[in-house]
Amino acid sequence: MQILTLLGALGMFLYGMNLMSAGLQKAAGSKMRGFLTKMTSTPFKGVLSGLGITSVIQSSSATTVMTVGFVNAGLLTLKQAIGVIMGANIGTTVTAWLVAWLGFKADISLFAVPLMAVGFILSLSKSDKRRHISELVVGFSLLFLGLSLMKESVPDLRETPEVLAFIREWTGFGFGSVLIFLLFGSVLTLVLQSSSATMALTLIMVNMGWIPFEMGAAMVLGENIGTTITANIAAAVGNVNARRAALAHTLFNVFGVCWALLLFKPFLALVGMVITWMGLPNPLDIDHTMAMTEGESTATLYGISMLHTMFNVINTLLLIWFTKQMVKIVTFVIKDKKTSEEEDTLKLRFIDAGPLSTAELAIGQARNEVIHFANISRQGLEYVRRAVKAKDDKEFEAMRKKLVKYEEISDRIEYEIAQFLNALPEDSISEETRNEVKRTYKIIGELESLGDSGEAISRILSRRNSHNQKFSDEQIAKIEAMISAVDSAYEVMIENLSAEEFDPMGLRLATDREIEVNELRNNIREEEILRLEKSESSYHSSVYFLDTVSEIERMGDFIINISQALER
User: pTM of the full predicted structure?
Assistant: First the structure.
């Protein structure tokens, strides 16, 4: 029953952390996206960004996976990402201090159940912000209630020493024991997918006297290796730069663990010295087999938290000067794939790593993919121009195949973006992001229709050729004018998609371009009808000409629909 209670309490701790993190992300997701992309111009700013975001969302794994996703999405360079990852490693130490201070020294579990009542009342609010805060409050309560239950359910080795005697046996192999507990910390973090949960268990084990301070320190070092696995799993299906960012995280932590093991005793002595400066006993001098006084317990808990903090701060201060060299190493290890330029242009570029574990932040990837989709669609317009101007059947057939291919590509990209958006859990994103997801569905539908129009024009031109009809130089010039007008509309639409905030001026410009396209179509139609009445043009040729002009005008309609869909 104790073991089952311990597992249940651990589940409550993890669920509380996830709920708290999700509430914070929903409350500040879009702000964090902007903060991260703006505050990474130098490695030091990147470190501060990673530190700030991890301190807020209380999960270095979430920040690291998000960073890998942003590299995958082209929002961050590899060099910027390394700085953020360094900061995330420092930020995760905040959780250890919260657990050591509130979870052990101030019994926060006494207030956990009343806090849940506050959370429930907030959850009934019509305000999105209050509902997000309710998740934060309930998550916070569950986290510390789970921690309290974990402390109560673990066996006391002083009363029942036989229960976990095998762990005590692991402590008698000198430096070999350090390596055993380092591996134990790595595996435990890998299994739980949370270094914070493993840190909480380490603090309990040291506080209950299961293991001495030195073995707790080894577990902390192991946790820093185990936490890199999450990012590597997320990057496994990502692009080359995403995998490089995950490898940089591993490289950073493994290097840190190596120097910490080489200088294990001096490093622990330094931690002990800092704790004594705080007016507490040196944790290295405490006999863990005997019942600890309150001061000794505090010194042990603070010692583990201090070691965690100092390890990550020192490691960052050592490696921040070698960011360029780290980029070179991971670039050498993970080489670029050899693909043709066109092949690289026409595939998904930003969301091939799947949805981020931090759902609120994943919409940034989808937004960038939509801009990429719009640029691919605009390339298709150039093939329409070339198909119209083709001088022989061979040249036309090459362009026709291109337009058919682009239509298939637009179908595939629309499907894959929609699949990505479908995978985002609705209950993990804010109302603002839900609305953005709806707008994105509308936009990718219109972009797919633009691909259909290009393919429809190729069919019109094929029928024209099968009837041995040709456009006159005047007709080709008019179609070119239409294509240029639509291309100008494309340019404004892509600028609107790329803007961080909706700009009414951008919508006004898009509307002006749509009016220009419509007026040009009307003038061309009237002129062509006059030419038919004067028998200056063949009827069949005019039909295919006007059908082509109408289909190009329809492309203008789809383009203005996209700019209008951006309106909040």
Answer: 0.60
